[in-house]
Amino acid sequence: MFAFAGWHPFCYHQAMTVTPVLLDVDPGHDDAVALMLACGAPELAVRAVTTVAGNVPLDKTTRNALQVLSLIGREDIPVGAGAEAPLARALRTAEDVHGESGLDGVKLAEPTFSIDRRGAVELMADVVEASAEPVTLIPTGPLTNIATFLAEYPRLKENIDRIVLMGGSIGPGNTTPAAEFNVYVDPEAARVVFESGLRITMVGLDVTRQATTGPKEVERLRTLGRIGEVTADLVTFSSDDYRKVFGSGDPPIHDAVAVAAVVEPAVLETHPMRVEIECESELTRGETVCDLRGVWGKTPNAEVALELDRETFFGILYRSLGELVD
């Protein structure tokens, strides 16, 4: 793992490789932070953003994505609106966590640009097909758009480098005792993605719960100008709820961890596992059943994150936000 102490950005930028990425999001406070991190990271070229219903309905997730990108002056990034509902189920949303707008507690100006005429799946296909290098997909919401894209454009799989997703858990869930929210909302889509044969990194609750923002982190964010102030407001919105439920007012920035793992893979310790998605049982719907010790004897289909290097993660976050136009 690398450290940011004593790191010389000029020398690093000369040697770095820029990775083309597409973010599929359902903003959501932590999705908003993930978007800003991705746009500020010089290691990433954000080719497009697609939206999906999840934390709130699609019209709100799309508006929120446009507002965040407008805030940071990235009207050049096309935004495609995607699925309004899961593949086979009614939509479950999370206004109890993110508020009615999905970004309650933060005042953002009206978007300065509009959605792309192409929907999410068509935009995704155009970006992947046109890229001279394989594209990394970073979904931070339900996997409905990704599953639909894989079903409709199987020929383009060869130009996807990997999928680094925020979702799932080896241990307890956050929506039911067994299931994490993104996978719970559309388990059928998650099953399609994990059975796709593509390289997958699962960034689940086991590591994202380690990316907590306490007073020290919030204070550091507020030193980063207007963007840092907005980010601090985003990450502290749920502090009171987390204190009631978990006894701590330090909410994690779940989705940003997946983006940081593309910037610097060594931010995570991972282990190859077979991951199966439970779709049938109502008790365990959306559970990511992870074969940690290989007892099934099946070929692993994902690298599953086990540990987070917090110092490196927050170094990436602070530096990337500091790169944004204020």
Please tell me about this protein's structure.
This protein has 326 residues and is an alpha/beta fold. It has one domain: Alpha-Beta Complex (Inosine-uridine Nucleoside N-ribohydrolase, Chain A). The chain is 38% helix and 17% strand. It has helices at 9-15, 29-40, 58-71, 95-98, 120-130, 144-152, 181-185, 187-194, 205-208, 215-221, 225-236, 239-246, 254-263, 310-323, and strands spanning 19-25, 44-51, 79-81, 135-139, 160-166, 200-203, 268-277, 288-291, 302-308. The protein has a nine-stranded mixed β-sheet, sandwiched between helices. The radius of gyration is 18 Å and the shape is globular.
What is the number of independent domains? Answer: 1
Mean pLDDT level: 93
Terminal CA distance reads: 30 Å
Low-confidence stretches: 1-14
Number of strands: 9
Query: Can you tell me the overall shape?
Result: globular
CATH architecture: Alpha-Beta Complex
Order of helices and strands: HEHEHEHHEHEHHEHHHHHEEEH
CATH topology: Inosine-uridine Nucleoside N-ribohydrolase, Chain A
- Backbone CA Rg: 18 Å
What structural class do you assign from the helix and strand content?
Answer: alpha/beta
* Number of helical elements: 14
Give the strand order, joined by hyphens, for the main sheet.
3-2-1-4-5-6-9-7-8
Largest beta-sheet details: 9 strands, mixed
- CATH C-level class is Alpha Beta
